[in-house]
């Protein structure tokens, strides 16, 4: 399917389409580590998932959380670097479904119904996290889930 010159893939579960750029940016994050994070949003008018913002490799977790709107849902992936108890440098790719309590009910339903299908499009997700409040995705929680 092609809308406004972009290749997209229909999401049969929710009727949602995924813009090619979403998968291409994710592959760059996963293989080249070109980005620290990617935030995705649903264009409710065109019913498609698109890239909202990318974070450069030197951006921090605080930079990432600061770009999530306080009253709108988003999907995001974050490439988390950490050191294990055995002193090994590792990284895990987190998929975060951001759905704040203050967002619109329709939006929450749209994001919830599209999440699993969209996540499958991004091959290489290692940890999934659902958050409705910043405290549910604190750096301590991320660290705990990574180990």
From TrEMBL:
<dbReference type="InterPro" id="IPR002108">
    <property type="entry name" value="ADF-H"/>
</dbReference>
<dbReference type="InterPro" id="IPR029006">
    <property type="entry name" value="ADF-H/Gelsolin-like_dom_sf"/>
</dbReference>
<dbReference type="GO" id="GO:0015629">
    <property type="term" value="C:actin cytoskeleton"/>
</dbReference>
<comment type="function">
    <text>Actin-depolymerizing protein. Severs actin filaments (F-actin) and binds to actin monomers.</text>
</comment>
<comment type="similarity">
    <text>Belongs to the actin-binding proteins ADF family.</text>
</comment>
<keyword id="KW-0009">Actin-binding</keyword>
<dbReference type="GO" id="GO:0030042">
    <property type="term" value="P:actin filament depolymerization"/>
</dbReference>
<dbReference type="GO" id="GO:0003779">
    <property type="term" value="F:actin binding"/>
</dbReference>
<dbReference type="Pfam" id="PF00241">
    <property type="entry name" value="Cofilin_ADF"/>
</dbReference>
<feature type="domain" description="ADF-H">
    <location>
        <begin position="13"/>
        <end position="147"/>
    </location>
</feature>
<protein>
    <recommendedName>
        <fullName>ADF-H domain-containing protein</fullName>
    </recommendedName>
</protein>
<dbReference type="InterPro" id="IPR017904">
    <property type="entry name" value="ADF/Cofilin"/>
</dbReference>
């Amino acid at each position: 399917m092609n809308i406004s010159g972009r290749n997209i893939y229909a999401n049969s579960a929710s009727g949602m389409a995924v813009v090619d750029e979403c998968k291409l940016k994710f592959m760059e994050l996963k293989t080249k580590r070109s980005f620290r994070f990617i935030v995705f949003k649903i264009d409710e008018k065109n019913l498609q998932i698109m890239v909202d913002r990318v974070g450069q490799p030197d951006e921090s977790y605080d930079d990432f959380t600061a770009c999530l709107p306080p009253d709108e849902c988003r999907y995001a992936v974050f490439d988390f670097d950490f050191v294990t108890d055995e002193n090994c440098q590792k990284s895990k790719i987190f998929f975060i479904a951001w759905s704040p309590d203050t967002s619109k009910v329709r939006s929450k339903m749209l994001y919830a119904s599209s999440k699993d299908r969209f996540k499958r499009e991004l091959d290489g997700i290692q940890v999934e996290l659902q958050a409705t409040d910043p405290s549910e995705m604190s750096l301590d929680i991320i660290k705990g889930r990574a180990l």
